Structures are given as C-alpha cells and as structure tokens.
Amino acid sequence: MPITLTTASVRSILTRSSGYLKSVCSHSLQPYRGCSFGNSLCGVGCYARHNRFVTRGAQWGRFLEVRENAASVYLAQRDRERRWAREHRGGFSVFMSSATDPFVPHERRFGVTRGVLKAMIEKPPDALIIQTHTHLAEHHLDLFRPLARCCRLRVHISIESDRDRLPGLPPPASPVRRRLEAAARLREAGIPVVITVAPLLPIGDPEAFFDTIAACADAVVIDHFIGGDGSPAGSRTLRTALPAAMAAVDARSVDLAYRDAMVAKARQRMPGRVGVGVDGFAGRLVP
Ligand code: SF4
Question: What is the CATH number of domain 4-281?
C-alpha cells in the first residue's frame, strides 16, 4: 500500500508529557508524524492510530510527515525546556518516540532521527529513552555510544511475544529474531537495553522467551493492552482486530491475569530486572 509522504517545518519538537507518559519522562519527541510501520502487526493495536492530533483524519500507516527541521528546533528549545523540566519534573528526560518509530525505513533517506541524536550529543537531555519496534536501531550505534556517555540512555526494543504472526494479522515490522539480535548487539556495545513486551501478546514458550531476553537485555517491561492503551479497560484496543487474534491463539491472553502470570514467569527468570506497565517504562523495576 503506498504511503503519502510530506515534509514539514515544525515550530516545536519537544512536547511536555501528559497522561500515560507523565511519570515516564518530561518530554516526548516525534521526528516523524505518522508511522510507516502502521500496516504491520504492531500497527493493528497501535495506540497512536487513535490520536486525531496525529492522524488528522488520515488512515494510520498511509502517511508520513518528515519533520525536516527537528534537530534545529530541538537545539532552539532545549535550554528553556530543560529549565522547565528540572524545575517541574525532576529532570529533562526525553521519550523518542511515542507516536512514531524513530527508525522507520524512511529514516535512511531523510535522517531526521539521526539529526536529532547528533543535536542531543551537542546539547544532551538528562535522560533519553529511545523506543523502537525495529532491528534497524542497531545501525545507529555510532551515535548511541557518545549519547550514553553524555546522558542516561536506554534503548527500548518492543518485542511483544516470541511469535512473529497472529492469525489474520499482518507480519511484524521486524522479525522477532532480528530484534533480539539487535538487542544483543547494542548491549554488547555497552548500551543499556530494555525489551518492552507491550502490548503483551500470547507467548508460546514463556520460560525460553524470558531466558532469551535475560541474555540480551538489561531488563524487560511487560504491559497489557488493558491498563496500557490509555483507555479504560482497554476499550481502544477492543475496537481493533487484535484481541480476537490473540484469543484465537490463547483465550487467556486477553485478560489482565495473563499479564500477571507472565510477570511471575519473567521474575523467576530475571529477578530484579522486570518492570510492569508504566512503572516499567519509567525504569521502576519490581524488586
Ligand atoms: S512502530 Fe510504534 S508507532 Fe509505528 S505503528 Fe508500530 S506501535 Fe505504532
């Protein structure tokens, strides 16, 4: 399906966090509007697809706005926003990204995220969480290394299950195996890596899955669409095709009790390295 590509000059790139992200970071940063992974597996239950400020009425996965001045706007906003964040939020921490993927395939052509990362090396935040669904993150190790020296960096790689496919749904943006390999590569290079199992999908062999994660990441965060999609009782996700596909594989997986069961298994394999829901995203792990 073709994607409509546009470019834009934005006036602001640092958004003061609210809602789910408020206890995770002081700001979010979206180098792109929209996401070219929107028609892959993660796009089916993607929370951003329900945000009308993001979609502006367009179909999710069918548009991408390239924010070509993102790096220069970051540099222009950084000092003021850092002052505000240190005064009101206990530090200037940036989450990149909550409504797009910083490493969409178009990044290779446009380099907006790379531009922002270079700007952050020049003027670092106090903390940076890079959130991605793709192994393509591993191509940016050359920038992660200096960033890890000048701010508290965490790379979050989403891996929702050990399965690549759910019945009737599209394939993932990046195979599970490739994402695990990317995690291992980054961690070996000294970059703090967190696997975000979010939203949690039915896992075929939880013990083996968490053992694999234990070997290639510093921590794991588990979040269910119930309580994690920003709507009461997961009502946003319940309007999508995701829950039926999950239930077809494992009927228990659509209940919150399934998350708790997976958290218990993860804690057995990775004691002290497991986070749950928003606390996990914020780096607050279960003791
Ligand atoms: S990569 Fe992230 S923002 Fe893009 S469709 Fe998937 S979940 Fe949504």
Answer: 3.80.30.30
With the most atoms of ligand 1 within 8 angstroms of its CB, the residue from 100, 161, 174, 236 to mutate is 100
- With a threshold of 0.85, does the pTM exceed it? yes
Q: Is 38 in the pocket of ligand 1 (CB under 6 A)?
A: yes
- 3-state secondary structure at position 259: helix
Instruction: Tell whether ligand 1 has an atom less than 6 A from the beta carbon of residue 228.
Output: no
Ligand 1 centre to CA of 135 (Å) is: 13
Sorting pLDDT into bands at 50, 70 and 90, what band is 1?
Answer: low
Tell me: the pLDDT tens digits for 77-109? Answer: 999 999 999 999 999 999 999 999 999 999 999
Placement of tokens 């790689």 in the chain: 157
Find out whether the beta carbon of 37 lies less than 6 Å from any atom of ligand 1: yes
Q: How far is CA 117 from CA 70, 96, 127, 239, in A?
A: 10, 10, 12, 36
17, HSE (Cβ side, Cα atoms, 13 Å) = 25
Angle at 202 between CA 198 and CA 204, to 5 degrees: 120
Comparing 115-124, 129-138, 231-240, 261-270, which segment has the lowest mean pLDDT? 231-240
Does the pLDDT of residue 35 top 90, yes or no? Answer: yes
**Cβ(48) – ligand 1 distance below 6 Å:** yes
